[in-house]
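Bit of a strange request maybe. I'm writing a small parser for structure token strings and I need a real example to test against, not something I typed by hand. Could someone generate the tokens for this chain?
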Amino acid sequence: MRIAIAINARTTCVWYAFFFVSTPSQLERIYSHRFDADVKYRDPVWQVLVREFFQRMIPSTATVLDLGCGYGFFINHVECGVKYAMDLNANARGRLRPDVRFLEMDCSTPWPLEPGSLDVVFSSNFLEHLPDKTRVEQTLYEAYRCLRPGGMIIAMGPNMRYVEGAYWDFWDHHVPITDRSLAELLILIGFHVEQVVPQFLPYTAVGKRQQPMFVVRSYLKLPWVWRFFGQQFLVVARKRA
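Reply from user aminoacidic:
Good idea to test on real output. This should exercise your parser:
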């Protein structure tokens, strides 16, 4: 728990703002509560998402880092040369395949990687869980440092413009982000934004009906449908060469 104190100059009142900062043990409980019941469903969904959509962006020889990897649904399925996964939850390690190198750490601190050592940084539904905007910026600056010139960041997450109040249905959501605010931040850091999809995937699968895989595949092939169901943004940007 972190406490921030703000003083109102007019009323001389002191306001205490409490920000919940997840510890590794808290993350473990959150992951278990939220995901354990439908891991067997999420894994094949991500297999379809990777093979039918994301894989075409990623060369087979690329060095890829899954930022906030969770249970490793993305990095376990992507085909690439070198795989890294980063998460603060130590139990994520047990979910990763043997070819994935796990970095157990706070992503807003310096990454133990050389500058220009990554080809792709992927992030799904993670940045909003960081405790504040400063941590988001620090994390993306590290991504920029570690990406090679021409390297790519792929980020998706709940778009505050479309999920509105439902964004706060998850206790560990802290930073409301939209496709536009994330694109602006990436530009300020030095990235060139290549693609912005305001409405990509539905907001969440938690507590929702599990769809057959052919429905997931069909959805990905029909971008015109996304504007009816999509509440997550997709932003793709490159480090300038």
